[in-house]
Amino acid sequence: MPADYALRPEAEFLAEQKYLNGRMEDIEKNLGKVAARLGTPTPITQPLDALDRARELVGDMFRQVRVRSLEDAIRTQLAWLDAAERRLAARDGEPKVKFNRIELDRRLLGDILAGWKARQN
């Protein structure tokens, strides 16, 4: 059965997008702070990389809430990460990536969800 990708009524996702906009602003401020601390052009550091990934995930969630709730979008993404982790652990003779971002993505999605739930209470 195909998934339903109909747009949700605007009233249902505006609060989620407002929250995600706030997260994005915080991430962008932190990117600026890290860059200012470094002072000169530099290769991407771990903090910059994590903030950049956070920005990507928040952007993804911002688009997804137009068709499903933030909690459902995060739950779906976490299920996908679980499946990806199982594939990486499989000893099936296929080459595997040595470095992956599954744990980082899982932590960042957990932070987004925790912030959303705290805001609702």
Key words describing this protein structure:
72% helix, mainly alpha, 121 residues, single chain
Report on this structure.
The protein has 121 residues and is mostly helical. It contains 4 helices and no strands. α1 packs antiparallel against α2 (46-64) and α3 (70-89) packs antiparallel against α4. The longest helix has 29 residues, at 10-38. It starts with 9 loop residues before the first helix and ends with a helix.
> Whole-number radius of gyration?
17 Å
- Structural class based on helices, strands and sheet pairing: mainly alpha
Succession of helices and strands: HHHH
Please tell me the overall pLDDT.
88
How many strands, what sense, and barrel or not for the largest sheet?
none
What overall geometry do the principal axes of the alpha carbons give?
Answer: flat
- Unreliable segments (pLDDT under 50, ≥5 consecutive)? none
Strand content: under 5%
Number of helices: 4
Percent of residues in helices comes to: over 70%
Distance between the termini: 35 Å
Count of individual beta strands: 0
